[in-house]
Amino acid sequence: MESLDELAARAAGGDKAAFANIYETLIGKVYKYLFWNLGCVEDAEDLAEEVFLRCMVNIRSYDPKRGSFRSWAFRIAHNILMDHHRNRKRRAEEPLKDEPENGSISTAESVEKKERAHALHGALNRLNSAQRQVITMKYFAEMSNAETALALGRSEGAVNAIQHRALRRMGKNLEERGWLS
């Protein structure tokens, strides 16, 4: 299988199938990153599509010498997310809306899953912006420290330190809410 960087080179040359492969590879991780930062399925879906539209329009500007395609795409996602937050500052906060459910999950499991998601989202919301970005990129988008650092324009050491503080803060918050013992 081709790497994302190889697919990006082909897509920059006009290969639509290569861009479709990029989309299929990254859409789930981009969506998770956005959902856990926004707490809203519809907004996450809309912004994820905006990320890939910008990737497609600007793919010729991608330079593999400056980092991986994945980091480049997540930098675009980060910028779109920050723009979205700036534009919504005047509006009231929306509560976390549920992710689409899997029909095979029992009611009890579904309730527990929703409670865990709400507790986790609450803990994420208590983090500062940098901490929330690092945690969502690392754990929901499954990015490495190097990729996260490139996407956020920080050093790997800074990402490590931010991650450590964020996890400690989230753990304390979850423990106060009775989720950890």
Write up this protein.
This protein is mainly α and 181 residues long. The protein has one domain: RNA polymerase sigma factor, region 2, helix turn helix motif (Rna Polymerase Sigma Factor, Chain: A), CATH 1.10.1740.10. Helices cover 72% and strands 0% of the residues. The chain contains 8 helices and no strands. Helix 2 packs antiparallel against helix 3, helix 4 packs across helix 7 and helix 6 crosses helix 8.
Which structural traits does this protein have?
181 residues, mainly alpha, Rna Polymerase Sigma Factor, Chain: A, globular
Quick description:
This protein has 181 residues and is an all-alpha fold. The chain has helices spanning 4-12, 16-38, 41-58, 69-88, 107-125, 129-140, 145-152, 156-176.
Which strand-content bin applies to the residues?
under 5%
- Let me know the number of strands: 0
Using the coordinates shown, work out and report the CATH topology.
Rna Polymerase Sigma Factor, Chain: A
The helix/strand order is: HHHHHHHH
Number of helices: 8
Reading off the top of the CATH hierarchy, the class is best stated as: Mainly Alpha
How far apart are the termini?
Answer: 44 Å
Which spans of ≥5 residues are poorly predicted at pLDDT below 50?
none
Largest sheet: none
Portion of residues in helices?
over 70%
Q: Give the full name of the CATH homologous superfamily.
A: RNA polymerase sigma factor, region 2, helix turn helix motif
Given the helix and strand composition, which structural class is it? mainly alpha
Let me know the average pLDDT: 87
Radius of gyration: 17 Å
Provide the number of structural domains. Answer: 1
